[in-house]
């Protein structure tokens, strides 16, 4: 049998790791090949981040959908639907854990339909940019399933129980502007400006001071799991430590000298 078409196209450019969901049918449904590709990319980016060669990761899409979620037809064509679903969900979840632990920002650029696990992937981003034409739908109840991809966890924390339950249980379509107002995405951009906006954002993040970015992300990611007292103590330690780093020294010198900083 011929090899399946690639599910993910990857490249590294100017300190940015870019992965594009690229199924030929445009749906970017998640099957075994897609889950494996995302997992491999997550591992590669994590290793590159630790090595200092990558400073930003971007996940984006081609086609009419960012992702419609699990590929039910592929699951049905397998020897065991439930076991195939288990493999894909587990592999995807492992990838999301890796991406969420990286000391660099994950940017998700959404242009199109987002459904099922695609919703969870979008909300796993540190920064999610959506085109104005994008639409979101949980979709699980329509086939008798419950959420995966971290969707229920993210929705409950961002929207609160009542709004999360309404969105998940109604199975309705949510437009990009509402997703922005509820905190599901960071920015909504006009379709004609979308590519430029994503490129400008990633360029800005790639040029930011690496250690300060990593510490900012760490503080934000841990803020909900401890007390304010603990967090304040951690913030104090972090800002003092960063003030002694080369980038911290350079940043202050540039500010006092009224010039642009030259971060490492």
Automatic annotation (TrEMBL):
Gene Ontology molecular-function annotations: enoyl-CoA hydratase activity
Entries under Pfam families matching the protein: ECH_1
Keyword Lyase: yes
Broadest EC class assigned to this enzyme: lyase
InterPro entries: ClpP/crotonase-like_dom_sf (IPR029045), Enoyl-CoA_hydra/iso (IPR001753)
Known EC number: 4.2.1.17
The keyword Plastid appears for this protein: no
Assigned keywords, A-Z: Lyase
Identification of the protein by name: Enoyl-CoA hydratase
Lineage: Bacteria, Bacillati, Actinomycetota, Actinomycetes, Pseudonocardiales
